[in-house]
Specification:
The protein has 456 residues and is an alpha/beta fold. The chain folds into 3 domains: 117 residues, 2-Layer Sandwich (Gyrase A, domain 2); 121 residues, Four Helix Bundle (Hemerythrin (Met), subunit A), CATH 1.20.120.430; 161 residues, Rossmann fold (3-Layer(aba) Sandwich). It has 15 helices and 13 strands. The strands form 2 sheets. A 7-stranded mixed β-sheet has the order 3-4-5-6-2-1-7, with helices on one face. Helix 6 packs antiparallel against helix 7. The longest helix has 25 residues.
């Protein structure tokens, strides 16, 4: 990271504002070479985060725009390095000329995500906060924005750190008693270990339980549209997506493969998967499509079971409903509500799934469907914004930490000596450190000297 990088930080299309961002040892000098403050002087003499108005120059020194510039000196910047931003009009050519002038001065093109990566390596962000930057950019609902913003502010890091610090205290106490027997330190008791491990296990289990909600906020809820052929699955997908995502015909079995679209229904983002109609078939291609439909059903967190309201309810429909209910929360969707309806059957189910009547053609019932989805996946939920695990990497590390702590508890109950069972505690700390990037050895050492004042 000894070089200086630059990139256009705004979109590629023409717009009102365009921003070129720089970071590295020569960032401020390079920006100053292309920017002439309106009041005279040099950009390098201006204070950190002071917005300066002036003229932007190209590589020949010719004026190309009236712009704003700001600088920040290390380590008080986003990346922890010297940084600069040139804010001009959003002309792609102005931005290109600016980059070319910077490259001519030895600045190189930044790689994808390199500004955030440098912030991570300089300690300005931890791993969870770096991941939150991407989540915030991709957020599609208010709940997703609040989660990502909270994680970026350190909410998840603080939650993990609370568990981490308690386990570090346990290790630090043990090593302090072992290594400094002459110091006035409370003895290490089995009951103390038991209580600390039980508390850590409970907190880790609660943390891991946030994963489903967190990943659904970040990536959308996997939702399978299931039903017999010609039940209206592709039509509903198109109505939810707002465009013709799937082919619709009156011929049963048109959909031969799964088709996916991200849709916002009410305040919930769904990854809606249109599936082939589930039925027995001799057609090899359709049979493969049915197998993929069943796979989508098994992976779904929400199932919309579609039944054609204009034809009688069948045993196949009843079987599919039972199958859907056995896999995930299910909403029974009576389709083609704009057509004359067949008699609605009495379904002796306990509990009875929510049911709505919709028409993909007229939009009838879509608001009611959104309301039922929001009931199953409310925008609120347990835990403060930003404290949810949002990806598999985080969840896997939390799961391993939980297993390590549980193993330490079992070892303690079996009468194994503390020095042996605390190896599991060290492994739990290592797993937790993968979430935030903490360093176990340095933390344990620092805790011994800071908390117990050894050598006073």
């Amino acid at each position: 990271m000894s070089d200086t990088i630059a990139a256009i930080a705004t979109g590629p299309a023409a717009g009102a504002i365009g921003i070129v961002r720089l970071s590295g040892p020569e960032a401020i000098a390079a920006a100053a070479a292309l920017f002439r403050p309106a009041g005279g002087g040099d950009l390098r003499s201006r204070g950190d985060r002071q917005l300066v108005y002036g003229t932007l120059l190209d590589g020949t020194g010719a004026a190309i725009d009236q712009a704003l510039a700001t600088i920040s000196h290390a380590p008080h910047s986003y990346t922890g390095e010297d940084t600069a931003e040139l804010q001009c009009h959003g002309s792609p050519m102005v931005l290109t000329l600016t980059l070319e002038a910077l490259f001519a001065r030895g600045v190189r093109q930044a790689e994808p995500g390199e500004f955030t990566r440098r912030a991570l390596l300089h300690g300005r962000l931890d791993l969870t906060q770096a991941e939150a930057v991407a989540d915030l950019i991709d957020a599609e609902t208010p709940a997703a924005v609040h989660q990502a913003a909270g994680q970026l502010s350190g909410a998840l890091s603080r939650r993990v750190k609370g568990i981490y610090d308690a386990l570090v205290d346990l290790l630090a106490h043990f090593h302090a008693v072992l290594d400094y027997p002459d110091e006035d330190i409370d003895p290490f008791r089995a009951d103390t270990i038991r209580k600390a491990l039980a508390r850590a296990r409970g907190e880790l289990a609660a943390l891991l339980a946030t994963y489903d909600r967190g990943r659904y906020l970040a990536g959308g809820i996997p939702c399978a549209l299931i039903g017999r052929p010609n039940a209206g699955k592709s039509s509903l997908l198109n109505a939810l997506a707002g465009y013709e995502r799937a082919i619709v015909t009156a011929v049963p079995g048109t959909t031969r493969d799964t088709v996916e679209a991200r849709c916002r229904l009410g305040g919930v983002t769904l990854r809606v998967i249109d599936t082939a109609g589930i039925r027995e078939t001799a057609d090899e291609v359709e049979r493969i499509g049915v197998e993929r439909s069943r796979a989508a059903l098994e992976e779904a967190a929400l199932v919309l079971l579609l039944c054609d309201s204009s034809v009688p309810f069948t045993e196949e429909d009843a079987h599919l409903l039972a199958e859907a209910l056995s896999h995930a929360p299910t909403i029974l969707v009576w389709t083609k509500g704009d057509l004359p309806s067949a008699p609605v059957p009495f379904l002796a189910l306990n509990p009875m799934p929510p049911a709505v009547v919709v028409s993909a053609k007229t939009g009838q019932g879509l608001e009611a469907l959104a309301a039922e989805v929001e009931k199953l996946f409310p925008a609120g939920g347990q835990g403060a914004a930003g404290e949810l695990l949002t990806n598999l990497r985080q969840a896997d590390a939390a799961r391993r930490a939980l297993e390590d702590v549980a193993r330490a508890e079992d070892s303690l109950a079996a009468g194994i000596t503390p020095d042996a069972l605390l190896t599991d505690v060290e492994q739990a700390l290592s797993a937790l450190g993968e979430i935030t990037g903490a360093n176990l050895r340095e933390d344990v050492t620092a805790r011994i000297f800071e908390r117990f004042c050894v050598g006073k």
